[in-house]
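Cross-posting from the modeling subforum.

Setting up a comparison between two proteins and wanted a second pair of eyes on the formatting. Protein 1 (sequence, then structure tokens):
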Amino acid sequence: MHPAQLNIFTEHGHKFSVLTYECTQPVEDDQFFLHMVQLARDVYGEYLLSDLPEIDPAVEASFDLSAITRAVRSSLPDPEDEKTKPANLRNYRSEAAELVARKALGDSFGFIFPAAAQVAKGNASQPILGFDGWGMIELEDDSWAFVVIQVKGSDENKSPPGVIDELIGECKRAPNEPSKLARALVSILSLLKDGEIKTVVWRMLERLGKNKPLKLIVAPVVVRGKVEAAYSDISCFKEKIDATDLNHLNAATASIGIDLNSFGKALFEKARSND
């Protein structure tokens, strides 16, 4: 499911992306929405169902795949559990924005996402601790960079939105928090099966253990609801970046055509359902 619009700018070695996803009404029939529903299910573990042994209808002890699927989906965030929270504090809203950010970064820069933090959360209705997401990318010299993702969702009708200062602060701190980077890498290792990527992650941990810097890309994302994404949402990073030791910044802003609270609520209600 590709964005309706995608523009990428490069300045001073940093990359900036502006994307538009057009989520149409009724949302339940929209292809972008349905793509995000499946992504939500997968980051909470539905992809693991592919590891089950093939089901033999003649064997009584075969797994009931539909029952397991229902159980997995019941573990996703339940919007009903958060209906008394202020809209801007609802976890299903922020996690929906994080999923949009993950897609936007993949569409823009080709990042891969070998593991997701959501699947290991103890409480689905609480936010992810640490970074908002992790990614990786193979560079032209055949080495790998670790991608730290920080996300803010905003329906505020101004550009940049008020949350941008907090986002800038998070991005400035990221390269200087080796313990958080190590924790993220250990979490990825615990969730990985791919041998090649596991070796890459071990090497990254080795560098941290030797007090050597990682090849690190910091990826801030501003996710908009009905407000149209604009370059001015993220262009302020150009002025702020010189005061930091960030070597590489890949920033994105993406709009989805529907307010974030409504989108997140519908997304997780659908993801929890059996259809």
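Protein 2 (same layout):
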Amino acid sequence: MALPCSREKIALLNTDAIWTGIIYRRRTLRGIRDARLDERCWITDYLIWEFLDDSPPVPLRSFFVEHGMEQCVLFYRHRRSENPDAPPPEEPLPRYRWDYGLVDMLRDPLIDELVRIQLAARRHRDIEDRPRTINDDRALYGVLPENVPADFRLPSEEEFLGRAKPEAGCSNFWDSHAKCGLICNLRSHEWGPCSRIYPTGA
């Protein structure tokens, strides 16, 4: 559910909707943070920006290959690390406690938590004067309570940007969408070819 960043507007929601909004956003962020190697992709940024009620929709038409590849190159250059992030000083929470703090949280702190996630998503989205970097991703994942480090490694440049493996790599990904027609399903980094009818519920 797309929402505003305004605390006043979020406070109009019932408590169940606020709680559900937090859980949905945390799970989405975790899925993206925990992606590994060539599962990582800049297209999944749209899944984060969907939190916001003024974001552009996930593209329904594949980008021109040149534009898609430009974004892939930027992703490789600025959102990659040679090593996984080091564990934080604080001990990571066990998985069963990741959302435990929400159970007895009162309404006002729940509102504050949802606003905090919304603002983090907006900061991540509204970067226009420079490429997005792994530090921006780290800041975004920092809204999660569990202190779990991210792994920003990517395959070799030849594997990630090129055609070294037939079912992997950005070039092969964009090739797979080359004959999709007017409509593509790029949500969640899905490979083509896509049906001309956009999948229901995607």
